[in-house]
Amino acid sequence: MRKIKKGDTVVVIAGRDSKPAKRGTVKQIFDNGTLLVEGVNLVKKHQKPNPMKNQPGGIITKEMPIRACNVALVNPATGRGDRVGFKIENGRKLRVFKSNGQTVGA
User: For residue 69, what pLDDT is reported?
Assistant: First the structure.
């Protein structure tokens, strides 16, 4: 079980998007420990036109993956980034916030 899952709201705590801290929703998780977060780590990419896919050429803005260690899960009770741990309850493994012990997503 991972500490950050698809659909979680995260805040950037390190890197160029950390000041002011950007927030976004996790769109995709990759096996190498990186995440694709909506509206975070935007880059300009020079793209060639591809008539087979009906893509125009030019400079596009796209989201690039960010390392999972550079983001923190947003605690809805405090509105800030928080660390996540695990707790076993009734035979199920649950994610909990370290600061107040609330379960994630509940």
Answer: 94
Classify 7 in phi/psi space as left (phi over 0), alpha (psi -120 to 50) or beta: left
Residue-range domains of the chain with CATH: 9-79 (2.30.30.30)
Low-confidence ranges of the chain (pLDDT < 70): 106
pLDDT of residue 31: 93
Q: Which two tokens stand for residue 55?
A: 């893509």
CA 80 to chain centre: 14
| Dist. CA 83–CA 7, nearest whole Å | 17
Task: Assess contact for 50 and 14: CB atoms under 8 A.
Answer: no
